[in-house]
């Protein structure tokens, strides 16, 4: 893999992991569209480690407070939120493990990816238009957090988007746009951390010759991921998800057309 390709993959991961456009869809589609060799599972782990660094770096103060309160005072707002995030992460982790093989084989289909981009774009449009409220992350309850976490399991299908489905469900649950995004980002931390730890062995056996491109990809995805989080939280203070909905539909139809042209 060239350094340029590593940077491109890092940028795609950093943007797609946190904006509701599906990083997995684009990471699968890009090598198919341009004829690049599939970078493999170890490289995917490296990219996710980069975005894990991004979300921890951005929310480290929040996580210090959440973990401390969760252990010392679980009935406080921060303590309660910590355990709600832990519980909400469980369904996605279980489904991800059960369908891991399909995610690496059958689901890597441009037709399926394009279809899911469009379908979830339409659902996000409905949520964005009708279900924006003023519920704050600090006031989230078990029912809301559970359904947001359960919806995260659908992100095993490329094109759904982990951030997209959790933000959409957050809107349907009554969260404001900004708080739906914030909870989505907090919820991503244990999921990405757990997946990274489980697959770390694949990264350990990476040949020394691949380390420069891997290191650049991790750094790029971390920096771009951090900037993406900041951008979206600022953007949603005054605007909705319209621009991402339009992009999903355009990208979805593009992938579907490419899929049928190659059959």
UniProtKB/TrEMBL annotation:
Provide the topology term for how it sits in the membrane.
Multi-pass membrane protein
The answer to whether UniProt assigns keyword Hydrolase to this entry is yes
What is its subcellular localisation? Cell membrane
**CC terms in the record's Gene Ontology section:** plasma membrane
| GO MF assignments | undecaprenyl-diphosphatase activity
Its top-level enzyme class, in one word, is: hydrolase
Protein EC = 3.6.1.27
Residue spans crossing the bilayer: 7-29, 41-60, 81-99, 105-126, 146-165, 180-198, 210-229, 241-261
Pfam families, alphabetically?
A: BacA (PF02673)
**InterPro entries the UniProt entry points to:** UppP
GO BP terms: cell wall organization; peptidoglycan biosynthetic process; regulation of cell shape; response to antibiotic
Annotated family = Belongs to the UppP family.
Official protein name in the record: Undecaprenyl-diphosphatase
The record lists the organism as Clostridium kluyveri
Gene encoding it? uppP
